[in-house]
Records
---
Amino acid sequence: SDPPSIQADAHQLRQVFTNLLYNAIDAIDQGGEVCLKTRRVNETLRIEIEDTGKGIPEENLVQIFNPFFTTKERGTGLGLAISRKIIEDHGGTIGVQSTVGRGSTFRIDLPLTRRRDEEDSSRG
């Protein structure tokens, strides 16, 4: 079938995915896994980045998208805050589920672009 299409700034989305993938890789130990999944959910494209890493403690989950919040020795704490802003500027959402010792899944939903044939058929 036709793959879903989105209207987006490729450079900005590359920045988001690079940040999330680096974070996932940083969270796993040797032998861990990072999995990237995409699928259509209603009128959105869902992208999930899942790792089998350390997980994020519950007290940090509420803060990870705040500017300058970091648990790393090196880093500014801006990566996830900027990522959230980019996704929201594209009309999407970003969230996370995490379990300490089992890993984290970041979920991004971006609105699909309506194809011209869908627009024509909806006008009747």
Note: The chain has a mean pLDDT of 89.
---
Amino acid sequence: LKFSAINPTSSYINYNARLNDDNMFLLGLSYRPTGTNQDVTPINGGLSQYGDILTSGDINNWTFSGAVEIYKNLFVGLNLNIITGNYDNTYNYNEEDVNNLFQDQIDPNDAGTTNFQLLHIDKHLNWDISGWDAKIGLLYQVNPMLRIGTTVQFPKIYSIKENYSDNFYSDFVNQPGFALDPYSDEVEYDIVTPYEFGFGLAANVKGLIFSAEGTLIDYSQSKFDDLNGFEDPAKTQSDLNRDIKDGLVAAVNYNLGLEYTIPDVGLRLRGGFFVQPSPYKDDPPEYDKKYITGGIGFLAEETIGIDLGYAYGWWDDFGDNYGTGLSRTLQKITSNNFILSAIYRF
């Protein structure tokens, strides 16, 4: 993600100076008038804000599954999933006085703060991820034409080993500027997701199968656990979990699908549509993830199956450089996923 724009009403410098952020003072971007306990700065809107965010990573799922018919036409199944992976985020942010709005001395007591030019921030975040989860399901074949089922996804537990570092410096015209000592921190914690409750049905009418499924997820029940090494005195584990409860809501994902099997060939044609509503409170429908899907499948001798699928998704998103709605990047995202799977029945 890359962004660049003039922000006429806000700046990272002014926002953090009002929070008495020591970094702004040490960079020569704010000062504290005699007899007060509040940092001030003449720098506000009108700066060019630009930067980029580079993210990468992977999640590996190793799933062990089993199912058995416990009563005539009633089946129970269990998945045990082992999770490994990593995530990496590099954030580069700049505020530059491209129109020379702030040429006067920022700090009246420091001539080295004359003619502000640039604030530069580098942040790097790396996660090492491990975890596990389990799902149980029931399937009942009501008659040859109708099946119904229900699932319970138990909370997923992700154990995170996090490494964080940042680097700040400021530039002034014809001045050496200021640089902070690089900062780094390591912290370990668990992320626990909520229960997920699903219900679905499939109806077969002359070879045309209609399926529907709904899944209830109360995202406000997510939480941080076993937080070790976190040094922010303003945010305890309880504070973080309170933020989750205040900002997230329950949502129902729903899936619709059609499948037709060509007789005597064993070729199955599939199409579908599903929606994953945004878990954030007060988000409009534009932020819901929506997908159209299609695929083909082949089952030989009722034993070996191969399936190829495609899913096209679209939704809106945004990110804040600081605060809420003060320096925001708006995104329109599309997603293309190809899925290949094979199955052997015995």
Note: Helices lie at 12-17, 22-26, 237-247.
---
Amino acid sequence: MRKEPAAADGGTRKTKLVLRLYVAGSGPNSAAALSNLRDLLAVRSGDEDPVEFEVVNVLREAARAFEDSVIVSPTLVRLHPLPVVRIVGTLCDHEAVRLALGLPK
């Protein structure tokens, strides 16, 4: 198992969580998924691992969805840390999403 190198301040480096949410325009399911993702990430305290997320509209960028094997929207993809995880739906079950992403309570 690889150990993360120590940060310059003497602590350990944080693992960045990289997420990509695929939506189809601003329809109700897409809006709900985005809102639920924001709510889920907002409850994380400031000292937790950093989070980066991007929203991709498949109506404008279909090729990107194809590259990530996304055929249904909304779909949330955890790109980092590996393994890649895909969650389909509006993300309304915060506990299940948190568990799938490996986020602490």
Note: The beta strands are 17-23, 51-57, 75-80, 85-88.
---
Amino acid sequence: MKSSTLVLLILGTFAVGCAPDPKSGAGFTLPDGSAERGQQTFVQLQCHGCHTVSGLDLEQLDSSETQMIALGGVTANVKTYGDLVTSIINPSHRFAFGYSDEEIKTPAGESQMRLYNDEMTIAQLIDLVAFLQSRYEVEEYQPTPYVPYY
């Protein structure tokens, strides 16, 4: 009797540990957006005052005191819409690599990026994500050619 109770307790612990996190992005899907309208939103919200976009020449705004953060280009990982949405609506969630804290963070440790949550419509967000996704190119992994094995 004791061993069956122990087995049930262990199985119950595993079952609880496998429950989805209420904050999980699982099941979150945006409708398809328009990259063209997203580029218009990018310019309208003046994102190009702080960001450059790979393969795109936009008129730079007067941002002499701002560190330009590069978006797009070749990357080793797919930039999912979940990554991009989170970066837009919660810019302090994760910071860009290759920049010093002074360049991208406030003294309080938050992102210097302005919050657009009260300014941007959901449609604009969807289109902006479509635009940004279109500017990334995933680099195919090239394994090291070890001579004895190739």
Note: Residues 10 and 116 are 46 Å apart (CA to CA).
